[in-house]
Design brief:
By secondary structure, the protein is of the alpha/beta class. The chain folds into two domains: about 5-215, P-loop containing nucleotide triphosphate hydrolases (Rossmann fold, 3-Layer(aba) Sandwich), CATH 3.40.50; about 235-335, K homology (KH) domain (GMP Synthetase, Chain A, domain 3). About 35% of the residues lie in helices and about 20% in strands. It has ten helices and nine strands. The strands form two sheets. A six-stranded mixed sheet has the order 2-3-1-4-5-6, with helices on both faces. It has a three-stranded mixed sheet with strand order 7-8-9. Helix 4 (about 150-155) links the parallel strand 4 (about 135-140) and strand 5. Helix 7 runs antiparallel to helix 9 (about 295-310). It binds guanosine-5'-triphosphate (GTP). The site of guanosine-5'-triphosphate (GTP) has 25 residues, from helix 2.
Length: about 350
């Protein structure tokens, strides 16, 4: 490993902890703004022996902002987000190559502790699989908060991998003076390598976090092409974007146990022809998805299609169906059939 990139060791003494706090709190918070795509200039060729490449897992309980952070770190929307907890259901890899460094971010579903159904068991397995064998873990919590669900995720983290405490949604914290004692109390829970209070919606914070992550990336050849953004297929992204619109446009009415299955994905010249089914558990849910006179389903389809067209820069024909499959989320075989590992 290159000496100039050796990571800061986990603080051991009170003085080191105070220095870490000072570094964390010295970063001036600013008002949040939406993060748009980042224009990354085409990187100059980097010889393999100078390349650095590392895996960074993003973990935390549902709804703390992991996917928002992944998208901001990559500079493109790779993982879907919504106000609804449990939006992310798969291990999603987001790749960013800058200069000699390739960051491979791994977003995970929020670790589920409440319901023990087959879907949640599959989601939890995905989280555990993602945190072993990484170079760095970003443990995301909401700044100033820590509850049992956070504690359960923290307890799963392997020893021997540096963990940065990302205290997200700092823009929502009214009393900033309470952050220092809270961070101090967090260090008693785990020997964090660094504290990082931030807002995933604030580009300056994201840029600083990226610079901090870079210190933990080892020297080794890149695993992906420099312009790769994800290892997920177009078919997968199509299903995910439909699910995002479904969750966003139905709000809290629709239980999280609804999913989207892509039945067909075909290229016809520059056109992508996609057929997908929204799977719900009850007839009443079907009504919610379809809406009055089919209005809601139409909107879900239009918004997903427009976003996919922007993403791929080409025409998309998207056909959506709604199907009732009661009890699918507690049926191991169906959970697997619908693509959950
Ligand atoms: N105010 C504020 N809201 C944020 C911030 N980061 C994320 N959010 C919002 O928090 C909600 C949840 O964000 P997600 O990125 O979907 O959270 P997640 O942790 O991936 O959620 P799961 O998929 O349930 O695991 C969304 O409404 C985001 O817009 C932030 O820094 N500040």
């Amino acid at each position: 490993m290159n000496d100039s990139h050796v990571a800061t060791p986990t603080p051991q003494t009170p003085a080191e902890l105070e220095a870490m706090l000072a570094r964390a709190l010295g970063r001036a918070p600013a008002a949040p703004t939406e993060v748009g795509p980042v224009d990354v200039p085409a990187p100059a060729p980097v010889p393999a022996e100078a390349q650095r490449c590392g895996f960074i897992a993003i973990v935390g309980k549902p709804n703390v902002g992991k996917s928002t952070l992944l998208n901001a770190l990559v500079g493109h929307k790779i993982s879907i987000t919504s106000r609804k907890a449990q939006t992310t259901r798969h291990r999603i890899t987001g790749i960013r190559t800058e200069g000699a460094t390739q960051f491979v971010f791994v977003d995970t579903p929020g670790f589920q502790t409440r319901h023990g159904n087959a879907l949640n068991r599959a989601l939890n397995k995905t989280v555990l699989g993602a945190v072993t064998d990484v170079d760095l873990i970003l443990f995301v919590v909401e700044a100033g908060r820590f509850d049992l669900a956070d504690a359960k995720v923290l307890a799963l983290l392997p020893t021997g991998v540096p963990v940065i405490l990302v205290a997200n949604k700092l823009d929502r914290v009214q009393r900033r003076v309470e952050i220092a004692p809270w961070l101090r109390s967090m260090q008693e829970r785990h020997p964090f390598a660094e504290f990082f209070p931030m807002s995933a919606k604030q580009p300056r914070d994201v840029q600083r976090l990226l610079a901090l992550c870079e210190r933990y990336v080892p020297q080794q050849p890149w695993l992906y092409e420099p312009d790769d953004l994800t290892d997920r297929s177009e078919r997968f992204l199509a299903g995910e974007l439909v699910r995002e619109k479904l969750f966003r446009l139905t709000g809290d009415e629709l239980p999280y146990t609804s999913t989207v299955v892509v039945d067909r994905f075909e290229h016809e010249g520059g056109l992508r022809r996609i057929a997908a089914t929204i799977v719900v558990e009850r007839d009443s849910h079907k009504g919610m998805v379809i809406g009055q006179g089919g209005e809601r389903l139409k909107r879900i389809g239009t918004e997903a299609r427009q976003e996919l067209e922007r993403l791929w820069g080409g025409k998309v024909f998207l056909e959506l169906w709604v199907k009732v499959r009661s009890g699918w989320s507690d049926d191991e075989a169906r959970v697997r059939a619908y693509g959950y590992e």
